[in-house]
Design goal:
With 210 residues, the protein is of the alpha/beta class. The protein has two domains: 117 residues, Rossmann fold; 86 residues, Winged helix-like DNA-binding domain superfamily/Winged helix DNA-binding domain (Arc Repressor Mutant, subunit A), CATH 1.10.10. 42% of the residues lie in helices and 23% in strands. It is globular and about 50 Å long.
Length: 210
């Protein structure tokens, strides 16, 4: 059974999520503030973090930064009523793997959780593609793709994030000069050389179109 740490100060929402996710065979610990969540993270091992942002003592974003600095790379989904692009960007820059805006359908959250849990397995299948996480290799219809290091890094992130987009900020950090132009060049090479369908989400980033 996969274990989740929930950081949420709204007791009604927290209780709803606890019941729903436990019904779907997840084990949960509930932290009502950032300091409590930090203590939980030190005392137990989790498969996924589910963090609100505006919580007492330590915000979800600051907590995530602290965990990432401590080399804790547990997959993290942020759930927040903050829907402006600045807040979303801060969440991803702090190390979030996904960002779900409140209010949301618990079923959508469950889909996203299962997608992140799936990525913990040795291999990840998305459409005709298979990513071997341990070997860091990618196959299409069983045939190995011979990608450059930067193409492999970008495509791996797109696969891991699917069905969610990868932000431009995340991708520019992967290129040598950190420019959006360099990202566009590599994305176009992936599309033309390997027939990979990648959609440009205006103002957000890129998404595998599978």
């Amino acid at each position: 059974m996969n274990k989740i740490l929930l950081l949420e100060d709204d007791p009604n929402l927290a209780q709803t999520l606890l019941r729903y996710l436990k019904f779907n065979d997840f084990e949960l610990d509930w932290a009502k503030n950032g300091e409590e969540a930090l203590t939980f993270s030190y005392e137990s091992q989790y498969d996924l973090y589910l963090f609100d942002i505006n919580v007492p003592l330590i915000s979800g974003v600051d907590l995530l930064k602290e965990l990432r600095e401590a080399q804790d790379f547990t997959p993290t989904i942020i759930i927040s009523a903050l829907i402006d692009i600045e807040s979303v960007t801060k969440g991803f820059m702090a190390g979030a793997d996904d960002y779900l805006k409140k209010p949301f359908d618990p079923e959508e959250l469950l889909i996203r959780i299962k997608a992140k849990i799936q990525q913990l397995k040795p291999s990840l299948k998305v459409g005709d593609f298979e990513l071997n996480i341990q070997k860091e290799s990618i196959k299409k219809e069983g045939k190995l793709l011979h990608l450059t290091p930067i193409q492999k890094t970008i495509f791996t992130l797109l696969l891991k994030q699917y069905p969610n987009p990868v932000t431009k900020e995340q991708l520019t950090e992967l290129t040598n000069n950190g420019s959006e132009g360099a990202v566009r060049v590599q994305i176009n090479k992936l599309k033309t050389s390997f027939n990979i369908q990648i959609k440009n989400i205006r103002g957000v980033g890129y998404l595998l179109d599978i």
